[in-house]
Design a protein that fits this description.
It is built from 12 helices and 18 strands. Helix 7 runs parallel beside helix 8 and helix 10 crosses helix 11. The N terminus is likely disordered. It is elongated. The chain has 2 domains: about 150 residues, Jelly Rolls, CATH 2.60.120.260; about 325 residues, Alpha-Beta Barrel (TIM Barrel), CATH 3.20.20. It is about 25% helix and about 20% strand. The strands form 3 sheets. The protein has an 8-stranded parallel barrel, surrounded by 4 helices. Strands 11, 12, 13, 14, 15, 16, 17 and 18 form an 8-stranded antiparallel sheet that branches. With about 500 residues, it is α/β, with parallel strands linked by helices. Its EC number is 3.2.1.51.
């Protein structure tokens, strides 16, 4: 076919032309970092992509979301707790980790804390377990199960504490051992920041049953509050505690320190997403729209995380049903597919297990993802050529680097080149389903415009256009085309672009 012959000639021409300028490797210089770059812990966190949220506690049994009822610890009574089942479910579903609500807004602690009487350890369920020689520290048990099934583990510790907030009624606790001093608030007696710091310290220094330290990959410092009580949090102190004891843990907050809110609870972001912002946790808050987009060339590397719910609520409620696998796939493509990590809440029910219908949906979702990524065209059968290669060094910066599976390789142009293209020749005719493009973000986020073309009927046809790329961009063309050649064009960048990955997904003809 004439058009197949044309693209093969073009490929050969590009290959020959770019190789004319090859110079010895010893003369090469590496690209310099561009503005802000991720820390090593952030870079590792980007690669996790998809993990679970676990909202579990008294609200599970009171049919609440924020725990205003302030019930006695006896309310926490799972009938057949199986935390291994949680971890097994998430592992089977292809999730990288799980984050547990060690203390939600209600204030009841799920671990054996020394800071308060308001903990599940003072309820009948926990006392019965301890009497049988069993562990009743749910946080420690969850950390153990995560390790057993090869998952990362993190904790959520709510700064707002209804149990300590004088503006929140607690009629059921009056006259009991759980009627504790109301120290939440700047005008309240006592030091809530010290109280919170003690709880945080307990969690970041927690040990497993064998004495091994629990390693946390993320700590959620939620900023939500449903009270008029004003409490100024000592974020600097909290950060110091975490950095001292868990230096590899990501601190999540509205706008950092390490990761920011995506601006909604839908598991999605807008099509343009920058990994940087220009405010800290201590400064005026960005609004939802600003958080979704971020700030190009911002002051701080603070990438977004998209939190979302499998069901309507964060905690399990009997009348709710899980989203379907198709909806989860759409959510995934609008979060992970737009360079944002996806944190999906999967709440255990009153038995203390993940409901079977939720488990089934997660497995169907996993099967959909596997089928989708299984369409990746074998890179060993592809030919890649570039408009330019950095100082002619094909080994370090050549176009074939975008096809391999190495974590540190990439295609690069010279420093003065901010636009360019990659041509990938397929081994046969394919119907294109999707593309995956990744920047080498270890050296910063640079690209602000790109397009992907397919060679159709003897000419290039643009089938995808976009703005930011960042850690990962998954694009599905609105119209499917048959081709044996595709081209990635970088149309705008603030520094020489570095492309880590260019994958083509499609069906062979």
């Amino acid at each position: 076919m004439a058009w197949m012959t044309s693209i093969l000639k073009l490929t050969c021409l590009l290959f020959a032309t770019t190789h004319l300028f090859t110079i010895p490797i010893s003369a090469q210089s590496s690209p310099a970092p561009y503005l802000r770059t991720p820390s090593s812990r952030q870079l590792s966190w980007h690669r996790l992509e998809f993990y679970a949220f676990l909202h579990f506690g008294p609200n599970t049994f009171t049919n609440e979301e924020w725990g205003r009822s302030q019930t006695l610890p006896d309310i926490f009574a799972p009938t057949s707790l199986d935390i291994d089942q949680w971890a097994r479910t998430f592992s089977d579903a292809g999730m990288a980790g799980m984050i547990l609500t060690a203390k939600h807004h209600d204030g009841m602690a799920l671990w054996d804390t020394n800071t308060t009487t308001y903990k599940i350890g003072n309820g009948k369920w926990a006392k019965d377990r301890v009497g049988k020689g069993l562990d009743a520290d749910v946080v420690r048990m969850a950390a153990q199960s995560a390790k057993k099934f090869g998952l990362k583990f993190g904790v959520y510790l709510s700064p707002w504490d209804i149990h300590r907030d004088p503006a929140m009624p607690k009629t059921q606790l009056s006259g009991t051992a759980f009627d504790e001093p109301q120290i939440f608030g700047n005008s309240s007696p006592g030091d809530y920041n010290e109280f919170y710091s003690q709880q945080l310290t307990e969690l970041v220094t927690m040990q497993l049953g064998d004495g091994e330290k629990v390693e946390l990959f993320e700590i959620w410092l939620d900023g939500a509050s449903g009270s008029n009580t004003v409490q100024t949090f000592d974020w600097a102190k909290f950060r110091d505690i975490i950095r001292l004891h868990q230096p590899d843990a990501i601190m999540w907050g509205h706008q950092g320190v390490d990761a920011r809110w995506v601006g909604n609870e839908d598991g999605a972001t807008v099509v343009t997403n920058w990994h940087t912002i220009s405010r800290t946790q201590d400064q005026t808050r960005y609004n939802e729209a600003q958080l979704q987009t971020g700030v190009r060339d911002g002051t701080y590397w603070t990438p977004a995380e998209a939190d979302a719910r499998l069901r309507s609520g964060w905690f399990w409620h009997a009348g709710e049903r899980p989203k379907m696998a198709d909806a989860l796939m759409d959510m995934y493509l609008k979060s992970v597919g737009r360079s944002v990590n996806l944190l999906l809440d999967v709440p255990p029910d009153t038995s203390g297990q993940i409901p079977k219908e939720d488990l089934d949906v997660l497995l169907k979702f996993k099967a959909q993802r596997d089928a989708f990524f299984g369409l990746r065209i074998n890179p060993s059968s592809l030919i890649a050529n570039a408009s330019s290669v950095r100082e002619g060094n094909y080994k370090l910066y050549g176009p074939l680097n975008v096809l391999d599976s190495e974590g540190s390789t990439y295609w690069a142009m010279n420093d003065n080149e901010k636009t360019g293209s990659l041509v990938v020749t397929l081994n046969s005719l394919h119907t294109i389903e999707a593309f995956i493009v990744q920047e080498h973000i270890a050296l910063g986020q640079r690209i602000g415009g790109y397009a992907i073309d397919a060679f159709v009927d003897g000419a290039w046809k643009t089938i995808v256009t976009g703005t930011s790329i960042g850690y990962k961009r998954i694009d599905r063309p609105s119209t499917k085309v048959k081709t044996n050649g595709v081209r990635l064009r970088i149309t705008q960048a603030n520094a020489a672009p570095l492309i880590h990955t260019f994958q083509v997904l499609g069906m062979k003809h």
